[in-house]
Each structure stands twice: as C-alpha cells, then as structure tokens.
C-alpha cells in the first residue's frame, strides 16, 4: 500500500491525475478483495480527493460516505467530515456542508484537535460567506486563524488569508481584499505551495475584475489557467475559464465569452 500510494502522490504532484486515479482505483479494488478495512478507509479518502480534483464532487461524496462508515478513530472521522463539507459546498448543498463542518468542530473540540478545529471553523465561515452573512463569517475566520497559528499550520493560515479576502471582496472592501490576497501570495511563495498560490492569483483577478481593471484581471487569470492545465487541476481550470468568460462578456466581447464557456 505505502509504495503504491507514494507512487500516486508522485503522479499527482506531476499533474498526472488520470494516472493517479487509475492507480488509486486499483488500490481500492485490491483492498476490497483482501478485506483490509483499515487501509481501505485511507484509500477511499485519497481516491475521493483525486476524483474531486478532476471535477466530480458528487462521486467524491459517494466515496467519502463509504470512508466515513469505516472510520473509527476521532482523527479519521473528523478529517472525513471536513472533506465531505468541502465536497457538499462544491455541489451547492450548503446545509449539509454546514452540518459536516459542525460535526467536525464538535469532535475537534472534544478531543483537543486544534489544527482540525481551525479547519472546521474555516469551513463553517465559508458557508456563512456563501449565505452572505459576512460579519459572522469574518469572526469565525478570525478564530480559525488563531487556532491555525497556535497549531503551526502555515498553509491553513495562508488559505484563511484568501478566505478573508473573499469576505472583503463580497463586502466591496477591495483594497483590504487585495492586501490579504497579496499576503496570501507571499506566504504561498515561501511555502512553495503552487495550488494555493494559484488560488491567490485567482482572487486578485476577481478583485481587479470587480474594479473594472480587466487587463490586470486577465493577466492573473492567465497565470491560473497555465497552472491548472500544467497540473491537471480540472476543477480549477473550469472555475478560471468561467470567471474569464463572465469578465469577457462584461468587457464587451460576447463571442469570446461564449467560446470560453464552451
């Protein structure tokens, strides 16, 4: 298992996500045959993560549900619930997303899992942001950031910068949003986190688009698109193409907008 999963990690890092998918599907079938539930639980989570990255959160949810039934340790259960919350949010099911993050928070608090608590609080905040409850969302992100810093999770701290920037953008606080995205970008460069760096570029592009600075927006979206194509991140590619299409239509080029949507 460990050698095969290590190979899957290397393939995913190189952007070979369809090959990663086939390898993890083989591992799933093998663990089913040998009846190794402990390792099957791990394989299901990794397989779901790959499927979601390739743009199918519904199938990912099916896999996470199977994984949850095999989780026994609190650490495994809360991690699965957090991933389910992300997948539910990706499908637009905010009620179930919130329920997953709340259950994750309860487990994290009762077992003193502060890093996991930061993830759960941040997830709940994202749902509140989607529901336009921006003040409540920012308060939760503030608590999540404190917990992440205490736990030493610098990647989550960088992600929370991006989430707080989204809240500012929705509240039309564009200068503060850009400041937070730039802070997120610097942190990701220091950490060498390419995926999260691309997220910061996408956020900056949205701020530029909202303020009618379309040339700068397209420049940053081009960076995101290049990363998504190179890394095989299908879901991220779909998002950036959709955002570019909307901005292109607003800038007056309807034909190009239709091409991007297609």
Summarize the structure in words:
The protein is mainly α. The longest helix has 18 residues.
Architecture blueprint of SSEs:
Elements: H1 2-13, H2 17-34, H3 37-53, H4 57-70, H5 74-91, H6 94-110, H7 114-130, H8 134-151, H9 154-170, H10 174-191, H11 194-210, H12 214-231, H13 234-250, H14 254-261
Helix pairs in contact: 1-2, 2-3, 3-4, 4-5, 5-6, 5-7, 6-7, 7-8, 7-9, 8-9, 9-10, 9-11, 10-11, 11-12, 12-13, 13-14
> Mean of residue pLDDT?
92
What fraction strand? under 5%
Tell me the number of helical segments per DSSP (H or I, 4 or more residues long).
Answer: 14
The overall strand count is 0
Major beta-sheet overview: none
Structural class: mainly alpha
A few lines on this structure:
The protein is mainly alpha-helical.
For the structure shown, list the relevant keywords.
mainly alpha; 262 residues; globular
